[in-house]
Specification:
By secondary structure, the chain is of the alpha+beta class. It contains six helices and four strands, in the order H-H-E-H-E-H-H-E-E-H.
Length: 169
């Protein structure tokens, strides 16, 4: 039951971020697999829809996970690594604003799922997942980071727009 509720919460978070979740997997999990696969599918699909440059690495990519973890100061390589990047994050990086997200990113953690979020200069946001349980905490953390990124991006666009407008006048 906990996993079904977590899955529903993930769908709600993705919906609130503007994703059409009508074609996502059913949030109800069955008793035998405890819904972890369903939750993982819902989480992954939402991340893929939010981030144009999205990848999942798992135990088959152990060396790459170790390399990326080291580059993002993640002390212990995880079982699963989500790599998230999109146009907004790239634009923030290009204009030297991405560092303002580091505080928000580094504060993200879970009580029921063990994960760490970090920023890698080359790849973007990394989510190192050590223990998968109630996955909505990861979606909630992504939502908080993207809310902060959206604010920074809007401020950057406003400064750019008004700066160009003032130069033209």
């Amino acid at each position: 039951m906990d996993n079904s509720i977590s899955n529903l919460l993930i769908l709600k978070i993705w919906h609130d971020l503007g994703i059409n979740v009508s074609n996502y997997p059913d949030f109800m999990s069955d008793y035998y697999n405890y819904g972890i696969e369903v939750g993982f599918d819902i989480l992954s699909k939402g991340l893929e829809d939010l981030f144009s440059d999205f990848q999942i690495l798992d135990y088959e990519d152990e060396e790459r996970i170790k390399e990326m973890s080291k580059g993002a100061n993640i002390q212990c390589p995880p079982d699963t690594l989500f790599i998230l990047n999109n146009r907004k994050l790239q634009k923030l990086k290009e204009h030297g604003e991405i560092e303002k997200l580091f505080g928000v990113i580094s504060k993200q953690s879970g009580d029921l799922s063990e994960f760490k979020m970090a920023y890698h200069v080359e790849y973007g946001i990394l989510i190192a997942v050590y223990y998968e349980s109630v996955l909505y905490e990861i979606a909630k953390s992504v939502s908080e980071v993207m809310s902060a990124a959206d604010t920074l991006y809007k401020n950057l666009e406003e400064v750019t727009f008004h700066g160009l407008y003032n130069q033209a006048v």
